[in-house]
Amino acid sequence: MNSIFITFEGIEGSGKSTQVKLLTKALTALNLPYITTREPGGTPISEAIRTLLLNPEFAEMKPETELLLYCASRAQHTGELILPALAEGKIVICDRYYDSTYAYQGAARALDENLIDTLTQFATYGRIPDITFLIDLPVHVGLNRIKERKLDRLELEDFAFHEKVRQQFLSIANKCPLRYIVLNGSDEPEIIHQNIISALQPLIGERND
Ligand code: TMP
Fold first, then answer.
1. Pseudo-torsion of CA 161, 167, 173, 175, nearest 10°?
2. Residue 128 carries which DSSP code?
3. Which residue stretches of the chain are H helix?
4. What is d(CA 17, CA 7) in angstroms, rounded to the nearest whole number?
5. Which residue's CA is the nearest one to ligand 1's atom 9?
6. Is the pTM of this model over 0.85?
7. From the alpha carbon of 38, which atom of ligand 1 is closest?
8. Which residues pair with 182 in a beta bridge?
9. What's the CA gap between 152 and 90, in Å, rounded?
10. Hey, which of 7, 39, 53 would you mutate to test ligand 1's pocket, going by the most ligand atoms within 8 Å of its Cβ?
11. Quick one: which atom of ligand 1 is closest to the CA of 40?
């Protein structure tokens, strides 16, 4: 059995969660074994770290603390959940992974990329996603979509912050064309879903279980 590690990335309001749901429905219909998970989060310890990270009352959190907490959450999540599921031959669908750290803490918080490289290698045990879907969308469209919700600490950042995040995702996608598929987040969800299924077809087809 061949495992597949799929990640979704994008700015706030890009529609990742909708696409994760549509993909799980499709995999269930195909009778393929999968798990869905998210970052920060996915295990009890990582979900506890998520609560700390996203609490809007912790506005004083230092970027350095933020980076280390995202990486701590990732180390636990990867070691406890993602790697064992992949070892069992499952498809792992993860809503955000380390590219979000390069976008939010690297580009938007201006933390050192070399340090992020080192921490990422450490926290992921060197595991790179097999395929990453970037759902790209203009920032004003994404922020408009989430304006009715109770916003978390990161969502409360200003337009310029989210623009840096968007540009960094596009730049990573450009540098990693073999791993990245960029989708137009302004398209109808069903169209985006069909594009995702088409891109996954060769990987799913390779599974010999
Ligand atoms: P979510 O709202 O998509 O679940 O993501 C939680 C927030 O955490 C979102 O604002 C993006 C942010 N984030 C980072 O800043 N760095 C990271 O490494 C990850 C995984 C998420």
1. -110
2. P
3. 16-29, 44-54, 63-77, 83-87, 98-100, 113-124, 139-146, 159-175, 189-206
4. 11
5. 154
6. yes
7. 4
8. 134
9. 31
10. 39
11. 20
> Which residues are within 8 A (CB) of 135 and not within 5 positions of it... i.e. 6 or more apart?
8, 9, 10, 14, 15, 16, 19, 183, 185, 192
Mind listing the pLDDT tens digit of every residue in the chain (209 residues)?
Answer: 589 999 999 999 999 999 999 999 999 999 999 999 999 999 999 999 999 999 999 999 999 999 999 999 999 999 999 999 999 999 999 999 999 999 999 999 999 999 999 999 999 999 999 999 999 999 999 999 999 999 999 999 999 999 999 999 999 999 999 999 999 999 999 999 999 999 999 998 766 45
Among left, alpha and beta (phi > 0; psi -120 to 50; other), residue 151 is beta
Residue 129 Cβ inside 6 Å of ligand 1? The answer reads no
Residue extents of the structural domains in the chain: 4-207
Distance (Å, whole) CA 67 – CA 58: 14
Neighbouring residues of 36: CB distance < 8 A, sequence distance ≥ 6: 20, 24, 93, 94, 95
How far is the C-alpha of 90 from the C-alpha of 85, rounded, in Å? 6
Q: What's the 60 CA to ligand 1 centre distance in angstroms?
A: 17
Q: Say if CB 162 and CB 143 are below 8 A apart.
A: yes
Please give the distance, rounded to the nearest whole angstrom, from the Cα atom of residue 204 to the centre of ligand 1: 28
Q: Say whether domain 4-207 belongs to CATH 3.40.50.970.
A: no
Measured from the CB, is residue 162 less than 6 Å from ligand 1? no
